[in-house]
Automatic annotation (TrEMBL):
GO terms for biological process: methylation. Residues 349-377 have a biased composition (Gly residues). The lineage of its organism: Eukaryota, Viridiplantae, Chlorophyta, core chlorophytes, Trebouxiophyceae. GO terms for molecular function: methyltransferase activity. Residues 170-224 have a biased composition (Low complexity). InterPro entries: Cupin_8, Glutaredoxin, JmjC_dom, Thioredoxin-like_sf. This is Lysine-specific demethylase JMJD5 isoform X1. It comes from the Eukaryota. It comes from Chlorella sorokiniana (Freshwater green alga).
Length: 578
């Protein structure tokens, strides 16, 4: 009976290795002309249960199954092929059957080995004895000949060339002459091993020293590398501590402490794992390692690059604390003007500086990604006059709820303020003049910047239709108030740092959403300065929070309330999809 071979794979492999593993198994099966079924779990998710049943719960792809049982992944299959066992597996034999066959073969080999060895040893010994005899024979003959010549007592047949018989008149001299070379040869032969031993003894210290140096060199190099790693780790820890200290001055009360829970993290999960563990369960997660191929990670740290690429392009800039605050408005200006007014001054003199580069916003507070509807992008209504006019690429806008007055008459100087009152007024003044390029489809407008980003692979899940891709670029302290979004959102941090706090939809009542108007998806609570008398439920609402670093990708499930605040000059990209 032919075995049933099934390859469980996916057409949406999230990593290059996963794609390579699938190809390796298919090429090997094709080379063996094996008939198999390939199951694409991204297209047939209902087949996952059969795979898990045959693999005892193992979910990593790809997997090769034979007769409903797991054989292994790509590395396992290649190992079985190298050991000559793959054909047996593909024929439907179990691991126990294959192991029994291998054991029997090994036992048969072991049984045959003693006889072969017993026969081979005498033969080898005889050959060695013959060789030794052949070597020793000429030496023995030479000794006999010399003795015969010296004593004259032995009859030795002459060999060619013939040796003349010694003269009778000088037998004693001949004996002495024959003995002298032999006696001279004996010390010389004894001196040769001694000289060799002496040379060897002299060479040993040099060899030992060289060997010791060879051993010490990697050890010294390893020690140096360890020291450099320690210094790097210490420098990173110091920088991280300084960053946390800078962040702490900007974060709302209770942030990153025992009141909240850290957002879960995952190192480049597969599409299947992302869907199973996070998307299908509406669980926030910070994905690591999914933005390593973004050129933006190295380019957008420098505002000069952004000016060089898109400086003359006109963009809408929000000016004010946030879209719910008094005096908030929008201005049109070039990207270069935005950088010069709001990014460069912030980078030079605002707390948080440009450490970590640039960073940006969150998901939209309303509507559909800033494209028609919602506080951002939909604030300007039909029939309402445009605030400001564009002249020579420079646009000034009058903030809402503010009018232009003539120069006021001189008045008496106001009384001196208390320090706390002055500090609060200064913060309000700084926030009122803060600019934020928020929720803007910048990448449709400037394709050269679009080339610096990559659509996350997880956007293929669900219906796989991206709704909007928006830019969020601003100085430290830019805020997006507490709000919800209707779609899954991947907030990708390209540069800088950003604090995000999330509340489950189960606690919507504690967010005190606006009852009517265009802000029904926005809470009334000011997370930075909550009014517990007006909003008593908010203090007890549990939350998750995190600080996004460059290369982090935060998944915000639809309906989750989130508050976002940049702690440095910042640039991020949000992907909405369904």
């Amino acid at each position: 009976m032919t075995a049933t071979v099934v390859l469980y794979a996916t057409s949406c492999a999230a990593t290059v290795k996963a794609k390579s593993d699938i190809s390796r198994i298919k090429n090997l099966l094709d080379a063996k002309r094996v008939q198999y079924e390939e199951v694409d779990l991204s297209m047939e998710p209902h087949r996952r249960e059969a795979m898990l049943a045959g693999s005892e719960g193992l979910s990593k792809l790809p997997q090769l199954h034979v007769n409903g049982r797991l054989v292994g992944g790509a590395d396992d299959i290649q190992e079985f092929e190298d050991w000559g066992e793959l054909d047996a597996y593909l024929a439907g034999k179990t691991q126990e059957e294959i192991l029994a066959a291998v054991t029997a073969a090994a036992a048969g080999f072991a049984a045959a080995t003693p006889e072969t060895t017993a026969a081979a040893v005498p033969a080898a010994a005889a050959a060695a004895a013959s060789a030794a005899a052949a070597v020793a024979a000429p030496a023995a003959a030479a000794v006999v000949t010399a003795a015969a010549v010296a004593s004259g007592a032995a009859e030795v047949e002459p060999t060619e060339p013939a040796v003349p018989e010694p003269e009778p008149a000088i037998p004693q001299a001949a004996a002495s002459a024959a003995e002298a070379p032999v006696a001279a040869e004996q010390p010389a032969a004894a001196e040769q091993p001694a000289a060799a031993e002496q040379l060897k003894a002299e060479a040993q210290p040099a060899e030992q020293q060289a060997e010791q140096e060879q051993q010490e060199e990697p050890a010294a190099q390893l020690q140096q590398e360890e020291q450099e790693e320690k210094e790097t780790a210490a420098a990173e820890a110091t920088a991280a501590a300084a960053a946390r200290a800078a962040d702490a001055a900007l974060l709302p009360p209770g942030s990153l402490g025992p009141r909240g829970t850290p957002v879960a993290t995952a190192e480049l999960p597969s599409l299947e794992a992302f869907w199973r563990n996070y998307m299908s369960t509406d669980t926030p997660v910070v994905v690591m390692g999914a933005m390593e191929d973004w050129p933006a990670l190295t380019r957008w740290c420098d505002p000069a690059y952004l000016v060089a690429v898109a400086g003359p392009r006109t963009v809408p800039v929000e000016v004010g604390e946030h879209y719910l605050a008094e005096g908030w408005g929008q201005q049109l200006m070039t990207l270069q003007q935005f950088v010069e007014r709001h990014i460069a001054p912030g980078a030079a003199g605002t707390q948080g500086g440009t450490q970590g580069g640039t960073q940006g916003g969150s998901g939209s507070p309303g509507g559909s990604g800033g494209q028609g509807g919602g506080p951002r992008g939909g604030q300007q209504h039909e029939g309402e006059p445009q605030q400001g006019s564009e002249e020579e690429g420079h646009t000034e806008a009058v903030p809402k709820q503010q009018s232009v007055h003539q120069q006021p008459e001189q008045q008496e100087p106001p009384p001196p303020q208390q320090p706390a009152q002055h500090e609060a007024q200064q913060r309000t003044s700084l926030a009122a003049g803060r600019g934020y390029l928020a929720q803007h489809p910048l990448f449709d407008q400037i394709p050269s910047l679009a080339a610096d980003i990559r659509e996350p692979p997880y956007c293929v899940l669900g219906e796989g239709e991206v709704q909007s891709i928006n830019a969020w670029f601003g100085p430290p302290g830019t805020v997006t108030p507490l709000h919800t979004d209707p779609h899954p959102n991947l907030l990708c941090q390209a540069a800088g740092r950003k604090y995000v706090r999330l509340y489950s939809p189960a606690h919507t009542q504690a967010m005190y959403p606006h009852a009517e108007g265009m802000h029904t998806n926005t809470g009334q609570v000011d997370v930075d300065e909550p009014d517990h008398e007006r909003h008593p439920l908010f203090a007890a609402a549990p939350f998750q929070d995190c600080v996004l670093e460059p290369g982090h990708m935060l998944f915000i499930p639809p309906g989750w309330w989130h508050y976002v605040k940049s702690t440095t000059v910042s640039f991020s990209v949000s992907f909405w999809w369904r």
